[in-house]
């Protein structure tokens, strides 16, 4: 209960800062996204993935970003992760929000990452999604796109 109360207090604090409801929604959405990325990272590390980078940005391609980049050491595969969250499945699965344009931006950012980090250029690469629905455990979708 204490953990939930702390979370509620954090959300209330975030919502009290912005001046408009729209700003409050953006702040909450960003904060929830950061929390889910942390949960995804913990989950992946428990499943043998070593974290290489978080929130890798490449402004060359429409301000693209890769949420998490990790290395599956058992297979020497470099994995580019997109983290998706939905409060519930009423309007579909979180992966349904991953558009073809966003997938293309992520692929291009992956190319930029490999150019900047040549030590990974000989690794096989994969694009996975970690999805969350509410408070349920994450779902790891390998080879998502």
UniProtKB/TrEMBL annotation:
| Gene Ontology MF, one | nucleic acid binding
Q: Which InterPro entries match?
A: Restrct_endonuc-II-like, tRNA_endonuc-like_dom_sf, UPF0102_YraN-like
Read off the SUPFAM superfamilies from this record. Restriction endonuclease-like
Q: Which domain of life is it from?
A: Bacteria
* Matches recorded under Pfam families: UPF0102 (PF02021)
Q: Which HAMAP family match?
A: UPF0102 (MF_00048)
Q: Which family does it belong to?
A: Belongs to the UPF0102 family.
Cross-referenced PANTHER family: UPF0102 PROTEIN YRAN
Specify the protein name: UPF0102 protein THMIRHAS_19430
Q: Which organism is it from?
A: Thiosulfatimonas sediminis
